[in-house]
Write a structure and sequence with these properties.
It is a single chain. By secondary structure, this protein is mostly helical. The protein is built from 10 helices and no strands. The longest helix is centred in the last third of the chain and has 29 residues.
Length: 222
């Protein structure tokens, strides 16, 4: 008798919960989720930030229910999934244009597309592509938007790789560092994930603040 492809726990996984995804699929799940969240519009709801941070934390043996990951395969899985996903999203955008977004009925996805387009117009390609990595939903839709709006492939690739590495490896190593320094850190996992998600938005908030200050200064001089 052959073994089942998926266990009962995997079939019952909660895709909105980082802990549930990691318990069911481990390192492989991290790579798949990174790819889906950054490359496929249907993955906009996946918990990218919290998944990376929690996965890094679980590499220290601080996880609940005996979940233990290894940092060595986790880092390349997270990076490859994030980079390959973004590049896939860009290529889909170049081929399908805005048709994919136009067909979507998700209000959240449409709002993310609007914010992604604003980022590209306001900050230019390089800054927008890097900053989008740290904004949920926007990091999903900016990649196909960049392709649809004709961002040069070389420019997109260079900056999505730079932003993708900082985002994926930074959050993973941040979780690992915190888990290594605080005993029983998993007891405080939920509030820490909320803090990490908030901190991940700081680059965008700082850039918005600078932009507004520059706009006000220009008005005063005008």
């Amino acid at each position: 008798m052959t073994a089942p492809l998926f266990t009962a726990s995997q079939l019952a996984v909660n895709v909105l919960s980082a802990q549930s995804l990691l318990a069911a699929f481990g390192v492989l799940g991290v790579g798949v989720v990174m790819f889906a969240e950054t490359g496929l519009l249907i993955g906009f709801f996946l918990p990218g930030d919290s998944l990376l941070f929690t996965a890094g934390l679980l590499c220290t043996g601080s996880g609940q229910h005996g979940v233990k990951l290894s940092l060595a395969p986790l880092l390349p899985a997270a990076a490859i999934g994030a980079l390959a996903g973004a590049q896939c999203g860009y290529l889909l955008g170049r081929k399908a244009g805005g048709a994919l977004l136009a067909r979507s009925r998700s209000v959240r996805l449409r709002e993310g597309a609007h914010r992604a387009e604003e980022l590209l117009e306001r900050y230019g390609y390089a800054k927008a592509i890097v900053l989008a990595r740290f904004v949920p939903v926007v990091r999903t839709v900016l990649n196909p938007m960049a392709g649809a709006l004709g961002v040069p492939a070389r420019t997109f690739t260079v900056w999505q790789v730079a932003g993708g590495l900082v985002w994926s490896l930074g959050l993973t190593l941040g979780g690992y560092a915190l888990g290594s320094s605080i005993p029983n850190v998993d007891r405080y996992l939920l509030p820490m994930v909320a803090v990490i998600v908030a901190v991940s938005l700081l680059p965008l908030a700082a850039e918005l603040y600078r932009s507004r200050r520059a706009a006000k200064a220009k008005e005063v001089r005008g």
